[in-house]
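ZP: hey, is the molybdenum atom complex queued? I don't see it on the tracker
AM: it wasn't, my bad. submitting now with these inputs:
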Amino acid sequence: MLKEQLKKGKIPGEITGIEVKKSICSICNPHSHCGLDLYIKDGEIVKVEGMLEHKNSRGTLCSKGASTRQYVYHPDRIKTPLKRVGPKGSDEFVAISWEEAYSIIAEKFNRLKKEGEPEKAAFFVGYTKWMRPFVQRLAHTYGTPNYCSESSTCFKAMAMAWKLNYGAPTMPDIGNTNCLLVWSSNPMYTNTTQAEILMDKKDSGMKMIVVDPRKTPLANLADIHLQLLPGTDGALALAMGNVIINEGLYDKEFVDDHFHGFDEYKAYIQQFTPERAEEITKVPKEKIIEAARLYSTVKPAAFMPSASPVVHHTNGVQNYRAAMLLVGLTGNFDVMGGNLVKGSVWLESPSGFPTCNQEYITPKPWSEMKERIGEKELPIWKELTDEAQAILMPKQILSGEPYPITHMLAFGINHRMWPDSENMLNALKKLEFFVTTDIFFTDTCKYADIVLPVCTSVERSELKSYNNGYIIYTQPAIKPLFESKSDADVIFELAKRLDIDDDLMQKGYEANIDWIIGPSGMTVEELKKHPSGTMAPKDPVRYKKYLTEGFHTLSGKAEFTSELLRQYQADYGFDPLPVYKPSDSSAAAMPEVAVKYPFIINTGSRLPMYVHSRTFRLPWTKSLRPNSSADINVEDADRLQIQQDDDIVISTPKGSVKVKANISEMILPGVVSISHGYTDADVNTLIEAYYIDPISGFPGFKAFLGNIEKAGN
Ligand SMILES: Nc1nc2c(c(=O)[nH]1)N[C@H]1C(S)=C(S)[C@@H](COP(=O)(O)OP(=O)(O)OC[C@H]3O[C@@H](n4cnc5c(=O)[nH]c(N)nc54)[C@H](O)[C@@H]3O)O[C@H]1N2
Ligand SMILES: Nc1nc2c(c(=O)[nH]1)N[C@H]1C(S)=C(S)[C@@H](COP(=O)(O)OP(=O)(O)OC[C@H]3O[C@@H](n4cnc5c(=O)[nH]c(N)nc54)[C@H](O)[C@@H]3O)O[C@H]1N2
Ligand code: SF4
Ligand SMILES: [Mo]
């Protein structure tokens, strides 16, 4: 202990009364969730450091995690349960007790159920990924099919593209690969722990290709950076397929034995010559050829996708399908150093140990429930996911079709996540009864009938497992502040009070975790003995599982032509091939609109200091990029006589926002990049509500036509 004390400047110990407690930061990406050493004095956090024993973050913290004290002790924290007494959208709330809040909620939801209409209730979970299985189960045992989440704009469409091609999502085996094709991801900003691994791999000789419209820190490290126009990914991928096939660089044995639809695909890609792809994507043809050769000849090679940018397009799923087909085409499917089929999951991430997650979240067959929100419009979403599509939720609330949605129980909801965020607000206004739980009192909370205060990760217990086998069950480092509670407390108290028939949910949070992770042999009790985490018993990695298990597609093979898409071709116009078409709002698709709106607006590329709507409120992170601003290229700025920090107006046929100009070499001419989540300049007011990919329902956040001009012009 003395050595430890000396190392830490003698701060912890009996004399100072400071104790170091272990926790994790849940501010950003669940793949990071860095370890925290919290210095606690008299029940208060006085200092924050990265936890060295944390096998994922290894002592590192980003600017957001370093601002943990500002996050936890922020004045916007909701302090007590609140009941709205003024009109919707007003700040007029009164404090009520938890008992009163729970009784009001139970009364409203139980009445709906008694009336035989539980499907009229939507259960929504925002970025709060750590409580999802429990909310999903609560929704389904209550009887509504309408559990939905922020995954209606994140991750699920990427998983759909994998499933359409191969019947299952895959993960890049980065540790064992010699070549990594990063198809849109910026981990230096979004997943810092992964960034470290990539930099080490690069230092040890791994080749890297990065496909990104911007010159990101990762793109700058790459051997080849394919800087394409947003939304043209499909054309690029098909051209790479063209080179790989026409130069005979593909894995003939894998294609012959395990792929369906090769001849159709081969015929289709002939039109995507590198020359044509250059015209569409603006990537020089030589680079396309070079990348195709590198990815197909260095073995093994892995493909690293991202949860959102490529699928934030009206053609997103088909574009990602085209890119992901390169994995099988080059024989890198489910092999060491290639892309591995994921096994069990915990909190939506591959756990590496067996779980009963799937059985837990779907306690009832879909056939026993009514149709889900979005089911008719989005049949592929229905086939391949276990949720309702939240992007169509406002449509159903506002139209009452095919049946009304009148109640909502949300765990962290931010209307600015939706395209046409005003439309979502109108939908929230129409609800008869709306409850939300949140850490901070947000603009969305103003529309709720009841607002419940929940606590942050450092005030609660959470089980987190990581890809490398590391697992940690945290204990609250400080008591929940004010009258806040953990989301888990709220969920399991409601499980007692709602009219549900579910013995397991009556047993509480830890018993439910034990049930899900049961097959692994681990228990919460055991995990508690390791406050700084431990290693989970890992399943042995198995390669080429398709040899024994086949592919979970309709043809039983990997599919160049999706038989599921073919089933819906006549009624929905889906093409079985991964066809490329330009974004619905683009100069190619709407030349007449492009005359007045010539720029491609690309929204929501992550900034290192901000996470969606949340860390804008912290003084430290805010100081790193104080203004709501948009990145524009130097050439465009010169042409429009815009100087750094000038006010500019970004407009679309739908609306306009005013921000500061940030002149940047990072971005291509003709493209404007702006963050989402700014309260004073909400980009989602610029987008039509149902500007979506017809396969996934994901919004086209990453490409739509717009204009920029200097404010006051
Ligand atoms: N234009 C545009 N829009 C986008 C995107 C884009 O790229 N461009 N990206 C989309 C993507 S990928 C995503 S993931 C979404 C994210 O969108 P959201 O999920 O809406 O993200 P947040 O605003 O971080 O979180 C929603 C709310 O959850 C609250 N919250 C945070 N932690 C907790 C907790 O532990 N418990 C509870 N109960 N509440 C909590 C926050 O305070 C916040 O009010 O945005 C989407 N919207
Ligand atoms: N700091 C921070 N970290 C975060 C988040 C955050 O808000 N802030 N959010 C978390 C969430 S919810 C998510 S989904 C992840 C996202 O994580 P990432 O995908 O790593 O990050 P993004 O910045 O959204 O997008 C990655 C890159 O995609 C590029 N891109 C944009 N449009 C296109 C396109 O059309 N094609 C291609 N090929 N690339 C394109 C952008 O230029 C960007 O550099 O980050 C997570 N981590
Ligand atoms: S916000 Fe920063 S410190 Fe916290 S989990 Fe994310 S990367 Fe780690
Ligand atoms: Mo996301």
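AM: back. DSSP finds 29 helices and 29 strands in the chain.
ZP: great, adding it to the tracker
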